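Suppose you are handed only these lines of text.
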Amino acid sequence: MAAKVTFFPVDNGDMTLIQLADADKTCLLIDCKIRSAADNPEDGTPDVAKELRNRIKTDINNRPYVDAMLLSHPDEDHCLGLKTHFWLGPIAEYADDAKPQLEKRIIIRQLWSSPMVFRRASNDHLLCPDAKAFNKEAKRRVAENLKQNFSVGDGDKILIIGEDENGKTDNLGPVLIKSGERFSGINGQAADHLVSHILAPISKQSDVEEEILSKNGSSVIISYDIKNSAYSSTVSRFLSGGDAGVDIWERISGEFESSDLEYDLLQAPHHCSWRSLSHDSWSDNGESAQISQSARSALGHARNGAIIVSSSKPIVDDKDDPPCIRAKREYRSILGNSGIFKCTGEEPNTSKPAPLQFEATASGFKLAVGISAAAVLTSSSPPRAG
Ligand SMILES: [Zn+2]
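From them, the structure of the protein bound to zinc ion can be written out as follows.
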């Protein structure tokens, strides 16, 4: 079985599932956006919660779970539906065992959270209720880890992504991954199947810069080296960076080597926004808007045959941003003739979009054509193991 990356159609927003090729099919969910319309069977909005549930596993108590969940940043289009669909609080108090399977809240065995990204978002705007709930859960898990000397079970585990300012995360050494560092596996599993390289959040170099970073869609940016299959020695690279804006990509371009920034699969930042590639407004300046060459360079290391995915509404030739038609053109030019650009709102068609699922191969990612939730269930039913 190949490792997979699935992008769910959530309009402008992110909800992405990485499934490794180890025996346990260890998985990481990056962000979620589950609108109430998506939960309404009478509504045509894609039922992404069902699509997610059809792809994840259940434990020995028949409770659905993900091995880990990362919140790239606490904006509503990256965490909507969290409280409704995920269990927050101690597992000992799990309250959904008597509910129908599809209504049971999903357990997050390990939470991946960045206090620095949270602080920057709170400095810039009010947090939505789901973001507040994520933050509360992260704080609960940190407190539990400190109390238990970091010896906690699934459901209490946390990984802190990026050190916070003024030594606020200095006492979290065993669960802290600093910016620039690499680490293996997910929740202590599948260490030989995934290496995650933290490219952001970036630490400030001055107070002025801190303000710029706060207003620039500060997000966790990770480059994932995913082993293609259980018996393969090759890896494919997925680069995902939330809504990071142009200033952040400029900094990344200066701080990392080209080899760190190469990818086989890229999630176009901020739903294919022009403001990840330029300081100029697309709506105001149109074609005269100038591109930032260093931001483009950070996002320009596509390997031969690479794929770029815009997790967004359909991309239309108008003044809207995001998604932005000119950003799409720029990504197309980065890909050249060998690459493929896809938009979650357009596949297989704009009236009824379905999850975009890619499988890792020896030569990068390939689109798994015609995948529906039913086909996923029958062809690769996950083991019902804890
Ligand atoms: Zn967003």
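What can we learn from it? Residues 13, 75, 77-78, 243, 270-271 surround zinc ion (CB under 6 Å). The chain has 14 helices and 19 strands.
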